[in-house]
Each structure stands twice: as structure tokens, then as C-alpha cells.
Amino acid sequence: MTTTFETQRAALADVVAIPVTPFAEDGSVDRAGYRALLRRLLDAGITTLTPNGNTGEFYALTPEERRTVTELTLEETGDGSSVLVGVGHDVPTAVASARHARDLGARMVMVHQPVHPYVSQSGWVDYHRAIAEAVPDLGVVPYIRNAQLTGARLAELADSCPNVIGVKYAVPDAAKFAAFARDAGLERFVWVAGLAEPYAPSYFSAGATGFTSGLVNVAPSVSLDMIGALRSGDYATAMKVWEQIRRFEELRAANGSANNVTVVKEALASLGLCRREVRPPSRPLPEDERAEVAAITAGWSV
Q1: 2: Cβ–Cβ under 8 A, 6 or more apart, which residues?
Q2: Strand, coil or helix: what is 135?
Q3: What is the C-alpha radius of gyration for the chain, rounded to an integer number of angstroms?
Q4: How far apart (Å, rounded) are the C-alpha atoms in residues 285 and 290?
Q5: In sequence order, what are the residues at sequence separation of 6 or more whose Cβ sits closer than 8 angstroms to the Cβ of residue 249?
Q6: Membrane-spanning residues where (predicted)?
Q7: Could you give the angle at the alpha carbon of 129 between the alpha carbons of 128 and 130, nearest 5°?
Q8: pLDDT tens track for 186-228
Q9: Which of 32, 72, 204, 240 shows a CA-CA span of 20 to 30 A to 176?
Q10: Considering the entire predicted model, what is its pTM?
Q11: Where are the beta strands (DSSP E) in the chain?
């Protein structure tokens, strides 16, 4: 019987939360803290989670830590249908991570953009095909940050691998996204705005039905307000939410997104929910920016 992945597709058309990975005082993964942050998201009404995403410091975690984060997420949710596990690095590592996630009950994986310095378009297809073919029972979601990749290449991948069901599109160009989605097949995939709330309104207007979020760790209700407005086509309300979060997201995006994770952890630290420590090549905020983040966070209903 052919798998339709309808449950997984529905989960992608939502707020796709990227949980942070909190660290304990000794630098290890704070297991209890991580579970508490997940429970806070779930209790707030967030249902789709991406462990081992970039906001979770994927590239700064060891292989064992990535497995731990996957295990904790699936234990806490109790249902893998809405868990989108981040995998990547070399093909054998990505395949092993995807199979590990599958064996724990996950039903989807997100494949991080290849970070190899030399990525050809046909090689991009080969990389994702090798992973998708290794786990045909999982929904596969490529994370696209490469502005040179064409929609035709994604369609080529899906022709070989029908389990490629969605796309996290993170090229900061709404016009390019609109063209890419139509070249690949607008109705064929679930389109997730991969640059979070700041880009969600423009990407939804072009066909996206979900968006990723790191801010959701801090203020789940704000992200839910935006998805609600976008689903109803109320762009005026969505832009009011956009204005509310603008400065927070500007701080995250500054200097090539150098403090993307740092700002989120700082906000959580100001609420007493997480230690502020991040791992290199990220670094903590200076004192003046810490105060600004705390002030912004205090103004939200969290």
C-alpha cells in the first residue's frame, strides 16, 4: 500500500517549532530543562517540533547529543507523527540519524542544507535521494537555503522519492520562493516558510502554509496568533504581530544571524527557563543587548 503521509503533511502546515537545546552548568545537554521547554510548547498548543534544528544548535552537538535530543523529544511528545527530526552531515551519518529517529517512532525528518563547499544541483538531488530512499516510510523535508537550486531539481527528486513531501524554504526572497514553488509543483509539496515569522506573511501570500519558529520557544502565543491570522487571510493582523516581534527578530538577524540562537536563549534566561550559554561559534550577548532582549520579552504575554 502506498503511504500518503497525510498526517505528516498536515503537521507541516502549522507553526513548526525549533526547540533550543539548553545546556547544564557543566556544559552537557540539560535533559530535564529540555523536556520542560518541550512541555511548555506542547501545553501552549504547539504540536509540530523539530529537534536538532539550527535553533537547537545542530552543528554544535555531538552525534550522541543529537541522538539524546531526538529520544527526549519523542518520549515527551509520545507521538512521532508531528516530530520532524533534523538530520544531516555526510550521507551515512544522515541515514543513520534518520533510521534512529524512525526506530523511535518519528514519522518525518528534515534534511539540513548540505554544508559542503562544492554543491552541484545534480549532487544536491543525489544527496537527498540517498537519504530519502533509505527511509521510504518517513516523510522527508529538504531544508533549502541555496538560492541557485531550481524548482525542477526538487521535482526531479520527488519523482524518484515520493516520500519527499514538504520543503523548508529559507532563501530570503519572496519572489524567488513563489517561482521556485510553482516550478517544483505548488500543490505537490507542503511549503514551510523557513525564515520564520518575519518572512511568513510574504511567503504565505505566495503559497506557504506553515512557518518555522525559534521565537516560539519564548512566546508560543505570539506564533499562534500569527498562524491564525495567516490561515484566515487576515494579513493586517499578521502584520501587527510582525510589528510586535520586529526588533527581537532584527537582533537575531544582525551580523549574518550571528546571534540567532543567542537572542532566543537570552530571552528564555530572562524568564528563568533556560541558561543563556551557547556553544561556539555562537557566543553570549553583551550586557546592553541582554537588557534589551529582557525588555522586549517582558512586553509579551508569555
Answers
A1: 162
A2: coil
A3: 18
A4: 6
A5: 196, 197, 198, 215
A6: none
A7: 90
A8: 999 999 999 999 999 999 999 999 999 999 999 999 999 999 9
A9: 240
A10: 0.96
A11: 15-17, 48-49, 84-87, 108-111, 139-144, 166-169, 190-193, 210-213
